[in-house]
Each structure stands twice: as C-alpha cells, then as structure tokens.
From TrEMBL:
Entry's Gene Ontology cellular component terms: cytoplasm
UniProt entry tagged with the keyword Plastid: no
Presence of the UniProt keyword Nucleus in the record: no
Database matches in InterPro entries: Leu-rich_rpt (IPR001611), Leu-rich_rpt_typical-subtyp (IPR003591), LRR_dom_sf (IPR032675), LRR_domain-containing (IPR050216)
Gene3D superfamilies: Ribonuclease Inhibitor
Keywords, comma-separated and alphabetical: Leucine-rich repeat, Repeat
Name under which the protein is recorded: Uncharacterized protein
SMART domains: LRR_TYP
Length: 223
C-alpha cells in the first residue's frame, strides 16, 4: 500500500493528535516535525531504523502513548523525563542494555521492554508503584530483580519469560498480580512466599530446572 508523504502525515497529526510513522525505514526523525506536533497524544514510530529517541518526541508534554518497538534503540535519553503525561510506552524489540532511572519517574501504566538486551533492573522501578499495571520484560538477559517489588500495588501483569533469573526476591510472592510468567529462566527454587499468590490466575514457571518445589508439585498447586 502506498504510504503518504511524511509531510502529509505530520499535517494530519497536527489536526488529529495522532502520529503514525511506522514501517518507513526511517533513520532519522523528520526535521519538519518540530513545529507541528506539540499537542500529540499518540505517536507510533515502530518498525524503523532509529538508534535514539528523537529530542522532538521527548518534548511532547501531553503525549500519552509512545510506540517505538522494532527500531535499533541503544539508549534512552534522560530527556524522556519530560514526557509527564506518558502512560503507555512500548520499546520492545530494540537494543537496550540498560534503562535510565528517570524512566521510572513517568506515570506509566504499561511498560513493554521485551526482546532487548537488559541484564538488570534498577530498584528505581519501585517508583512506578502508584500507576503501573503491566510490565513486559520477557526475552532479555536479566539475572536478578530488585527487592521491594511488592510496592507495585497496581501491577496486574508481569512477564519475565526467557531471561536468566536464578533466584527471586521473596516479596515477589506477595504481589497482587493476576498474571505472572517466569517461564524459561534458570530458577532452581521458588521462595516460600509464593504460596501467597492466591489472586494470580495465570502463573507460568515452565522451562526452569526447579528443585524446590518440584515442577509436579507446582502444577498440582496451580490447578
């Protein structure tokens, strides 16, 4: 399907508050955007070749949704802290190796970071506690999680499948999540606190070399 010229897309975004520049093989953000999109509510810049978040996007103080998956993003600029209205952020399928602490100062409800190269998560993630409802960290290289995740009281979905976790902080078992995916990690044992996950209706721990409790016990308990 023939795509509209960027100039036309930017003009439409000025009128609607929604910008869609996905799947355009962009290597840089259009310069002409700077004066036209200050009132954007949603931006989809996914499936391009961008290596950093454009400063222009980081200045959009009313932006609520940013989709930036499937690019070549290697780092996140501290300027992202200016996105004070952002509630939905998709940075899946990029090349991120770490996250700036300022990311966790945003009022995010959904944070999608699957298929990156993250090895750890800062304890600052706890600052998402009042708002965050879904976190996807699947298919990274995360080896450990910080303590204190139980302060994420609004969190309902947490996906950690396909990482390198060998153990877990005990308080993850006291969270109010409805869905928790720990499959395909390196877990040998689950903390005893996991018996408190009564409200979790979708719990996955397959693909781990579990010893305590054995996998057959986990299956019986969850069913």
């Amino acid at each position: 399907m023939l795509k509209l010229p960027c100039e036309k897309v930017l003009h439409d975004a000025f009128l609607t508050g929604v910008l869609n520049l996905s799947q355009r093989q962009l290597k840089e953000f259009p310069n002409e955007a700077s004066s036209d999109i200050s009132d954007l509510i949603k931006a989809d810049i996914s499936s391009n070749c961008l290596t950093e978040l454009p400063i222009t996007l980081c200045e959009l103080r009313v932006l609520e949704t940013l989709e930036f998956r499937s690019n070549s993003l290697k780092t996140i600029l501290p300027a992202i802290s200016s996105l004070i209205s952002l509630t939905y952020l998709d940075l899946s399928d990029n090349h991120l190796t770490d996250l700036p602490d300022v990311l966790f100062s945003l009022p995010l409800k959904v944070l999608l970071l699957s298929r990156n190269r993250l090895q750890s998560i800062s304890a600052e993630i706890r600052h998402l506690g009042p708002t965050i409802e879904e976190i996807d960290l699947s298919s990274n290289k995360i080896r450990s999680l910080p303590n204190g995740l139980s302060v994420l009281t609004e969190l309902k979905v947490m996906n950690l499948r396909g990482n390198q976790l060998k153990d877990l902080p005990g308080d993850i078992g006291t969270m109010n999540v409805r869905s928790l995916d720990l499959g395909n990690n390196l877990l040998i044992r689950l903390p005893v606190e996991f018996c408190k996950l009564g409200g979790c209706v979708d719990f996955k721990v397959d693909g781990n070399p579990l010893i305590e409790p054995p996998m057959n016990v986990v299956r019986r308990v969850r069913h």
